[in-house]
Amino acid sequence: MRKFLAALMLVLMLCVVASADDDTIKVGVFNCLTGQNAFGGQLELEGTQLAHTLNPTILGKKVELIIVDNKSDKVEAANAVTRLIENDKVNAIIGTYGSSLAMAGGEVAEKAGIPVIGTSCTNPLVTLDKKFYFRACFIDPFQGAGAATYAFRNLGLKRAATLVDMSNDYSVGLGKFFRDSFKKMGGDIVASLFYQSGDTDFTAQLTALIDAKPDIVFLPAYFAEGAIVLKQAKELGAAFKFIGADAMDNPEIVTLGGEAVEGFMHTTFAYDPSMPEMNATAKAFTEEWNKIHPDKAPNVNCALGYDCYIMLKDAIERAGSAEPAKIRDALETIKDLPTVTGMTTINATHDAEKDMGIVEIKGGKKTFVGIVVPEV
Amino acid sequence: MRNVRNLILTIIAVVLFAFFLDKAPELLNGYWQRILNLIAINAILALSLNLIYGITGMFSLGHAGFMAIGAYVSALLVLSPAQKNSMWILEDIYPWLLNVNAPFIVSLIIAGLVAAFFGLLVALPVLRLGGDYLGIATLGFAEIIRILITNTARLTNGSLGLKGIPAYTTLFMSWSCLGIVLLCTVCMLRSNFGGVLRAVRDDEVAAKMMGINTFKIKVIAFTLGCFGGGLGGALMGNLITTIDPRMFMITQTYNVLMIIVVGGLGSVTGSLIGSVLVTTMLEWLRFVENPITIGSINIPGIPGMRMVIFSLLLIMVIIFRREGIMGMREFSWNIFFPKKKITDVGSKTETVLELENVKLKFGGLSAIDNLSMKIKHWEIVGLIGPNGAGKTSAFNVISGFYKPTSGTIKFLGKSIGGLSPDEVCKAGMSRTFQNIRLFGNQTVLQNVMIGSRIRQKYSWWMTLLPFVFTDVIKEDAEARAQAMNLLDQLGLDAFADEKASSLPYGAQRRLEIARALATRPRFLLLDEPAAGMNPQESEELMKFIRRLRDEFDLTILLIEHDMKVVMNVCDYIHVLDQGVHIAEGTPAEIKANPRVVEAYLGAGAAEGGAA
Q1: DSSP of A194-248, one letter per residue?
Q2: Model pTM?
């Protein structure tokens, strides 16, 4: 047995194939491919891989993607980024879903001076005081304000409430910025309720909401809890509307939620396969995606994963070099770059400024209803 | 001689390793430095959980909670006011917290102390529970801590977490901390106090009879373990530089638990090996997730594959070495040097207690009814009666395991009714058990040394730094000498370094007596010392009991079924039947007492005079 094990080990060790080539640009991808955030991480990775397949060379050099899993775990995230930088000597990094993972990895990259583009890490703290961290997504305050603007200005609703996941930084942040912005415009916040990730019974909160008689409830939830909230609200006969955020953007929302999600709205990036007027990049992305994944519609995570690569490509081309420091400088000056999720501009805090879209479930279909400009 | 050699080897090893760490930044890239750092932190966490679970035997699942406390305390102390200001974006930070600041080393110590304080708070109510219940209670505690941190946003920034914690956890820092923790742990475990910890794990009942307040010992061990948890958490936070409540879920505890189970529960060496293996394996196995090309076959990378392989390796360890890699053994330089074989295993062969109307009832059942007896100094007294007569219950009442329902028990003129076993022991009484209760995983010598712990004056915390508090070394040396002396007198000296559970049956009985004697009792209770012995062995036992009385100036009360032993060795005999004291007298009187004969053989036999 022992000899067998020893032999097995030896074989495994010999399988480690190291490849080194000076004429390649190495791009590290760290994302949650396993663990609790694997769903989002996988989609983003597929987006990045699609962009790589379509653009295999930059500046005439071959681009190699080096993919590492961060297991949705902070310690692993820091290890993964260190490994990419120290062992694989990457020029730049793309990742990750999950802001706390981005913060753990970002600290390492900052010290090593390797630029990172975050896919969907929306917590404001991710890029705070960081020279080398950028992101393709907008941040929580922007999105919270966007939902408030749409509810107050576009829908003309005056009474709002929030239902927030207390244990989730994303949800807590969005809820706070929604309330602030809604009040500033002159609306009333009639209730502010909480739950914890993993809860399955929301009847207590929903009954309280029904009593408070809001016109609309902001639900910055992840899909697991959000779907149950919508279902139970339907059962209790709640009269108010729900508006969520990009974490509710799930390609299977209609199959999973059925009738309960009818009329549900959420803010998201300005991309959805159902968009009537797509820009050229988005059109190309959707077509290519459907060729490779005929049975699966793309969502914003795929789009953001794709956009990160496009941003990186643009920066390297404008810098004329794949040197990390030069890539960083070029990233800082990205302006009106056409990406899948609209025109991308990097602002002073390294966050992407881009249009925000609103999606509504109408007649059992995800429908892109328009673009909103948040009043922050 | 051997000790000096080992000390020199240890110092050489430590110096070499320190030299390696010093050169590490040049020899290793940042990735391997990080892993080396993680190994040290994991080792600290593993050692501290091992102290609680492996060594003292308390199944705790709360380590993640104590890590969270440590990480937050340290982070809040080392973050600058400006950083704090920019991070509390949802709710305002408490103004007093804003300007609280401390150097990193101070923050580490405070982190450990706060975690230990919470550990103490948990320990006092919860350690009255045992086994699985303790596991559930501590698991619940860890979850409570996490939810508290999530909900006290003004203090902890809630679910947003903290970031930008200065990366103070350098290789030097984490390994120095590990060095100190390791030194203290090893010193403590090698002292007699360490033996006491293991004794509590192996047999709590017997430990109590050695005069040990086992509850206090458990509280100390648990609190110390929590200190380690807090320290490890603080180092982790300063390595990752960002923390949030979701980092400290139950999986964090499982990680540590996995290390100590793989390494071996109860082994310090095992915890170290375990943390090296678990930390490096997970990283090293990353290559299996990359696309692999063997010859012409292309295997695409599968995310999560390394977890599958890692789990398989873990299962293999558990199947082939259930006790973990090291079991309970420890590393010792001695393994590199030939061991001397043990060749010769030769065998060498006033009123003290007063009970008055003692009753013991379990609900409606009366186990002892109105027992009164006096035992004089230097007597060997027998307590006999048929099965279920209440003999062992009487022993348990006298030695403090049961509280009498009514009546008084006086020992050396003082009332001891209602005292706990350890207090009774300290008053000068010791006992053996019907079913032998040795600390089976410890050596014969360690078993006996535990008995002398009640006479040692040094406090438990001195054992952390025995080179400063040299009393520890001195008193342990004395205890060792006395224990060796006892073993010598009882003919067990050849077995001194053997595991207690590996001894033959008769020797285990004698060892139990030796351990009882180590507490220096005035009064010894022997519960069926001749059980399971053949006639020749019981012959020797009789001589042995008298010799004990003479050499150690003892008064002895014994329960025995072997009538030959009872009649030959006892000066005086009390007879119990169904809880009732039916007779007392010299052996000759008892033999002739018709009630005794009736109790043993039934009514008809008494008339026939079959005794």
Answers
A1: EE-TT----HHHHHHHHHH--SEEEE---HHHHHHHHHHHHHHT--SEEEE-GGG
A2: 0.79
